[in-house]
Known about the structure:
There is one protein chain. By secondary structure, this protein is an alpha/beta fold. The protein contains nine helices and eleven strands. It has helices at about 10-15, 35-45, 55-60, 80-90, 105-115, 135-140, 155-165, 205-210, 225-244, and strands at about 5, 20-25, 50-55, 70, 95-100, 120-125, 150-155, 170-175, 180, 190-195, 210-215. Strands 7-6-5-10-8-11-9 form a seven-stranded parallel β-sheet, with helices on both faces. Strands 1-4-2-3 form a four-stranded mixed β-sheet. α1 runs parallel beside α2 (about 35-45) and α5 (about 105-115) runs parallel beside α9 (about 225-244). The radius of gyration is 19 Å and the shape is elongated.
Amino acid sequence: MMNYAAGRNAVNEALKAGHPIEKILVAKGSLRGESFNRLVEQARQAGTYVQEVDRAKLDEIVPLHQGVIAILSAWNYVELDDMLAAAGQSGRLPLLVILDEVNDPGNLGAVMRSAEVAGADGIVIPKRRSVGLTAAVARSSAGAIEYMPVAHVNNLVAAMHRIKEAGIWVAGAEADAQDLYYEADLNIPLALVLGGESKGLGRLVRQECDLLVRIPLLGRISSLNVSAAAAVLLFEAVRQRSVG
């Protein structure tokens, strides 16, 4: 499945058609005329993240790119408010997953699969510094992408605040948290927050959490893969709700 548009005309047509775009990559140091700059400005006005990269990065994706490539979404996103409304009408306690800068498509796909099996209402990811709904994510999700709503938000902290306004508690996973995950009350309207592969939760994201929990690590490795951690926390919430 092609998941990019290369060249100024192709990118411009993708923008005009309203195709979901993860981000637009532009080559550093390119000679940019008026039409090129207008294209970049159009993307930014549409809320699309524009990132400058080395020309070699673009060459790896496709040789003929004219200094600009749009990474297209493989699937459509949902609005956060629509996700919250559906969760509130489901007849059960809301359960969301929030991912803070998860960049590996295999991890996002695996989280989607666990979230779908656990009956979660949706996943929230930021537009910047995060992998989106690419073809690689679709493959890794093993079909879960067809069923799991994903909201793509400009500001993750603002999205968390909106989720809390909807009456949902936000629990962040942190290695140095005081409370063990199975000691915390997860039998509540809940959004689980997990950090990216290398840095964990960002400072502002952590501060926005209502509670922090940790998974005990008893071996020699100092961290757990984000998709594995998501599965542990999701199914602890499922367990607590089943014995309620």
